[in-house]
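Moderator note: this is an archived Q&A kept for reference. The question asked for a predicted structure of one protein chain; the sequence and the answer are reproduced below.
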Amino acid sequence: MKAFFKSFVYAFKGIIHCIKSERNMRFHFCAAFYVLIFMRFFDLTSGKKAAVYIVIALVISLEQINTAIEALTDMVSPQRSEPARIAKDCAAGAVLAAAIGSVCVAVCVFDDKNGYIKLYEFFRDKPLMLVPLAASAVCWAVFIFAKRKDTKND
């Protein structure tokens, strides 16, 4: 049982490493944060909610796999080589394809103008809520783009 729980610790360490070292991962988490917040303004079916959760998990998972492939490629091929470049480019392409797919899902899921009206009315009726929204945007921008001394930045 102890080994089972340790496997979760290792998995979370991998996620934390990726968040610390990969700017794109931080961007994906930011996008997911706002999508999940703004979902509440739309009357989404269970299927549409599931689609959103699946594409979020897919993009984040593929970013993890991309990071793993990059690390492994750097380990086995420290010099620049065409096969190493292809491996890294294909892994990055997989993330890009999933991210584009997630935008397509978002276009389909969030096609209800009533959701946008509810969103507008919420901030119209509670303009002070724009303060935490703006503050969160600043925090996310710093989180995403701040240079980190201890890790690589894309």
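Archived answer notes: The two ends are 38 Å apart (CA to CA).
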